[in-house]
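Page 47, continued from p. 46.
Same chain as before, 202 aa.
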Amino acid sequence: MADDMNGNHDNDDVFVAHADEFDDNLDAQLPAWPKVVGIISIVWGSIGLICNGIGAASAVFMPTLMQSAADTMEGGFPPSITDPPMSTMIASVLGFLLSVFLVIAGAMTVMRKAGGRTAHLIYAPIHIILIIWGIVVQIGVQSETAEWVRQNPDADFSQTQQVGGSVGLIMLGLFSIIFLIWPVFNLVWFGAMKKTHADMTG
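Result:
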């Protein structure tokens, strides 16, 4: 009581910060890149789900539709279109599953889980291999189509492919480059720059 009256105070008083202030300070100290990279992976994976889902569905239903269309055109369609190789469907299914894996990897990275880095390092080379395989398959389809066009120059389909064939190869190259950007980035980012879990948590 006397100490209080004389203006003296104990030196062991404790200041307790508000929980919200502590959380804000902690968030400010954490690296921002895991959320950015994780969200991009989630978005990119979601786009892959849509594209590969459409591709798988097309591989199932498109041959029947193309066959019906071929019956109405002079000369018909090449077999590479009316009866595409099974590898196109397999590539789409594998791409769909890999897109699911990428969405999961992105969510783990947003939550700063150590497995997020590992998942991206697994995803990246598999996706690159899948893209290369898809390019090889599509080039094979294009070659078979071009050969059929040479052998059937009078077919209605052949008339439309005089310009369309070159455009198809250009589009294939362009989309391949776009799809390679993210897996290559992940290989460099997680493989050479952010090598430990501490890089995610600061």
